[in-house]
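Final report, closing paragraph on structural work. Over the funding period we assembled a curated collection of sequence-structure pairs, and we close with a single example.
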Amino acid sequence: MVNLANHSLFGVHSQIERLPGATEARQNIVKTTLEYLEELSKDAGNDERLRMAVAAGYLKLGDVQGNAYGASLRDYPGALKSYQAAADLMAPLRRAHPQDPVALAAWVDIQLGAGHALTANGRSAEAMVRLEAALPDAIALGRMRPNSPEAAAREARLCVSISYALREHDSAGALVWARKGLAAFAALSARFPDQDEILEELATARTDTGGLLMIALGDLKAAAAEFEQAAAVREKLLAAHPHDAVHRRNLMLVYGHTAAVLGNPFMNNLGDSEGAHKYYAKAVAIAGQAAAADPQNRTAQYDLAAAMLRLGAVDVPASGLPGSLEELRKAAVILESLLRTSPDDLPCKRNWELAQEYMGHRLRDLGRLPEAIAAYRRSLESADSILAARPTDRTAHSQAMASGRALVVALAMSGDRAGALAQARNSIERAQAGISIGSDKNLRILYLARSLVALGSAYRTFATAESGSPAANEADWREARSAAARALAELAAIPDANQNRTYTPPIKEARELIAECDAHLRASK
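Its predicted structure, as stored:
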């Protein structure tokens, strides 16, 4: 009976796991098998083999519910319950048989699954505890079975997962772990060159490392090189397995990473908007096929929304604004649908906030200021709701600062002087307080400088308003210049700021604003 159940969990499930449209079938197989095993266990007492099978069932169920890297329902709270049930069943077996490789492998897999779900649910500190605690078992497993690529891969997977958990709070530390995972997978690939799964995970390690090279070091060329190598591997794997949903999704992800380094406006990039648009369009095409093939796969729906959001956010000429806005709206609708059933899905919520911010930018540029202001407010309020629960959340703080600055400019353009100045003061006070930024002084300076430039831009808008008197306009030009000059003075405290892509945009904006102010002030004299 247990053999039959294990065949269902590991044989049948594994055969359909990578097929498009299989999420609901996978869920039914796992649930039915698990119900059968639980019923069987009522008469089996403490039978260890049955206990192991039930634990395996909960592990598989957790993967269907909330695997952050594959087809799933994105039900992270449900996944955590399943992983914990698996852990509760496995813990006595692990203690009783510390040298049993099967028990060790199951234990490490449970911790990996729980770590992924915790990180995706915004609980990265708890994820770190579980993942780091599992490292000794993964290392021991690799020594027990040195000729098994699957056994040896678990240590590398933990390194990559720890890197992912650290990503938002400690990008430098995350890069160290990402490089460990990359080195481990590269060594495994050399030892087991015919193992497609190892090659795929090597490509994943390359994309993770590339992303952190962008974030931690600002090394865009090195990041692009990692993405290029990962894409080459994934294109070959998909060509060899054209119906494999996992290979198809992973190729979509690396196309997205390539687009990001070329021209994603959310981060430092190489300024190639045309190239970014091309690769994001490729990612949207793959994601759209997956979402249509498997409507129950919430990860596929999220992937489609995330890809459409980024495609819509890429810089476009004025003629492309309506199309860009439509992509952003479609992304927002999908994300809202996902959040209605999973309101604690943090990545989903962050992407919705970005969609609102960039919808605001497009609406502003189309002259639809009331709608733009409403979109910026929605983004800001959502980011603030995250900060209320997680005051040290740097990503939420960054989003609140970005949406707040955009709101300042839009309010000024709409003629709301009092509202614009009040919002500008709020943004400046946030930056000065350094909310949620910890010891990163340079980041506080950057936020402050950008907020001051937004204030200066608001005063420039007031100064050019036809309703103002010459004296009032001159006063506004002076206020604009003062804010821009202060921004430059703040940025001057950062060593080599003029050579760093992170700081050059606000430096350029401040200098251009000062030059414009000086020209108007000279003309007025």
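The mean pLDDT is 91. Residues 1-122 form one domain. We thank the funder for supporting this effort.
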